[in-house]
Specification:
This protein has helices at about 1-35, 40-85, 85-105. It is an all-alpha fold. Helix 1 (about 1-35) packs antiparallel against helix 2 and helix 2 (about 40-85) crosses helix 3 (about 85-105). The chain is elongated. About 0% of the residues are buried.
Amino acid sequence: MDQAMHPLKEGTNRLADDFRAVVSDAEQLLRTASDQAGEGYAEARERLEASLKAARQELDTLEHQMIDGARRAGRATDGYVRNHPWESIAVGAGIGVLVGLLIGRR
């Protein structure tokens, strides 16, 4: 399970860093646009577009990693349930009892 979560955490951190870069570039774009609409604006706009493109690619990569991780987890769960049906039923019943108790307390 930890192996499936590591790429997810790493991808989330990279995505957060990319969005920080996008925000930083957007702030600089706004400052430059308000100061002057010359060469600095075009340069800042190009950097912002590059940052957005990188963020989109990172988001796509993260999405694929999440989908693959969910599929692997689903297969592992399915395999466990098929190999240990009675234990799975007991765990499900135990969770049901706990949820019932929690709902009943309200």
